[in-house]
Design a protein that fits this description.
It is a single chain. The chain is α/β, with parallel strands linked by helices. The protein is 22% helix and 22% strand. The chain has a single domain, classed as Metallo-beta-lactamase, Chain A (4-Layer Sandwich). The protein is built from six helices and 14 strands. The chain has a six-stranded mixed beta sheet. Strands 7-8-9-10-13-14 form a six-stranded mixed beta sheet, with no helix packed on it. It starts with a strand and ends in a 14-residue tail after the last strand. The protein binds zinc ion (ZN). The site of zinc ion has 7 residues, from α2.
């Protein structure tokens, strides 16, 4: 079961509820981490020590910038899950992906995301890691111990178990090279990061025009269309997209 944290700032934070554990995807700012803690305690009436996994769909500041804050109020067992590619960023073997289409891709979505900013801490990050601008792309030190990080993937498979409550990882590069989605077959829920965004209420969602590779992001949507039937898409920015048949079928894509 997925719960979007209401008004979690610029990007969307999600709480995944399994039987006796919780996971959080993309706590992107200090404010998002604070909102998530409050949501877990007040709305879900669970304790922060139930939070065992904090995942990122990709290594961009607006998706990782609250992980340290959230981790500092979780139990000692809580771990941070990143794609294997992030190890290279942290070890400075590789800079994060260069982004294209800033004006047509990022600007309109960023403008529409402003309505989700509710307080100053939604623009505060617990470190400078994950800024996709030249000159910042190698900044990757994190405010928590490397022992708290678990890396997944980086092998041949594109789809594999995450190890949390029946959730799988599906590698969906294109927005960035480390972009992944999280999918749960039993409930047909897909948390897709910035592969798809949906800034309109009751919108169908669209393939993100802000990407590092147009071919890869198109291929990732094609891969999902061929392999999964999704009831609810939870995008990296904006509102969920729902359909009883397959919510991916309505997603607006690019002209070939
Ligand atoms: Zn984003």
């Amino acid at each position: 079961m997925v719960y979007p944290v209401p008004n979690s700032g610029f990007s969307r934070t999600y709480v995944l509820v399994a039987e006796d554990e919780l996971a959080v995807v993309d706590p992107g700012s200090v404010g998002a981490a604070e909102d998530t803690k409050r949501f877990i305690e007040k709305e879900l009436r669970r304790e922060m020590r139930d939070l065992t996994a904090i995942m990122a769909t990709h290594f961009h500041i607006d998706h990782i910038g609250g992980i340290g804050t959230l981790l500092s109020c979780s139990g000692p067992e809580a771990r941070v899950f990143f794609h294997e590619r992030v190890r290279d960023y942290l070890e400075k073997k590789r800079p994060i992906s260069s982004m294209k289409n800033w004006y047509l891709g990022l600007r309109p979505a960023a403008w529409k995301s402003v309505r989700y900013l509710r307080k100053a801490t939604h623009l505060m990050f617990d470190g400078p890691a994950g800024i996709p601008l030249p000159g910042f792309k190698n900044l990757s030190s994190l405010p928590y111990d490397r022992e708290r990080i678990v890396f997944f993937g980086g092998k041949r498979e594109r789809r594999y178990p995450l190890g949390f409550g029946g959730w799988e990882v599906i590698e969906t590069p294109g927005h960035t090279e480390d972009s992944v989605s999280f999918f749960r077959e039993a409930t047909r829920e897909l948390v897709c990061g910035d592969l798809i965004i949906n800034m309109e209420k009751n919108g169908r969602g669209r393939l993100n025009r802000f990407y590092s590779s147009r071919d890869e992001i198109m291929a990732s949507l094609d891969f999902l269309l061929r392999t999964v039937q999704v009831k609810t898409v939870y995008p990296g920015h904006g509102e969920p997209v729902r359909s009883e048949s397959n919510a991916l079928l309505g997603v607006e894509t690019f002209e070939k």
